[in-house]
Amino acid sequence: MQLREAREGYLRWLLATRDLSPHTVRAYQGDLASFESFVGGSKQVGTLDKPTLIDFLEDQKVSALAPASLRRRASALRGFSRWLFAQGLVSTDPWLATRVAVGRGRSLPRVLSTEDLDRLLAFLKQIAGVSSASARPSLVRDNPHESNTLLAVALMVSTGVRVHEVVGIRCQNIDLASRSIRLIGKGRRERQVFLTNNWIAALAEAFLEVRSVLDLPHPYLLFNLRYEPLTTAAMRSRLAKAARTAGVSQHVTPHMLRHTAATQLIEAGVDIRYIQRLLGHASLSTTEIYTHVSDQALRRVVSEADVLGRLTR
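Above: the chain's sequence. Below: its structure in token form.
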């Protein structure tokens, strides 16, 4: 079988049998397409061997691909190799015992400053007609779409939910009595997040009342201008536009709000293990990157204190 055919078969298998996000499958598709381009799509998979895999990854490393991307490409090749062997398309797993040093460098996550976060939320409250002290159903009913965006952003900021998780919230998964929301995250892992104060709980309750009056035919909490379920692309667009209009200089993405939520919790002294559960991280090492962001805040505070400077005045 040619590599091109095998790659297409493997991707179909991933979609049918593995519980991976569409983003992950697209990323693996790109990784394997790069590998196919490197060795040639007409190459017979039976001739694949360990040196070929290592040559490809070394080539990618020389091209200055980011360490995270190199690790993902190595992961894509490892999974592809195992599948080829399981399907009987190769006599031995070409990845077996392969070790490639791709580095562990990580860039710090981009976060919003407290000032920009305040600016964004104040703008969204203004256009929704909702004050910090009130989220009455009558106000939400007058501006359902603006309230829609405000609620989504407030949830991302307060709970760190991913964009696909927030647009995937079903009304029946919101428990106002316990102020909790049940989510299904990556790997179909279930977890709870919480409506953390009276204001967001009141906003969620008012929005649910208005949504009930609208009698929408789908179970999802958030909706677009046509009252259809809100998509991740639409949510990204809404957030970016709102941030620009609010005067935030950075290009704001939903993942920045997730990073910002985690960083705010770290700086508030919340134990990193609780943050791991809240964010739905499978590994604590994924959450630990936020301690480095918090180190920046520590440096700022210590520099402002300037203990040595006070002693030598």
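The longest helix spans residues 67-86.
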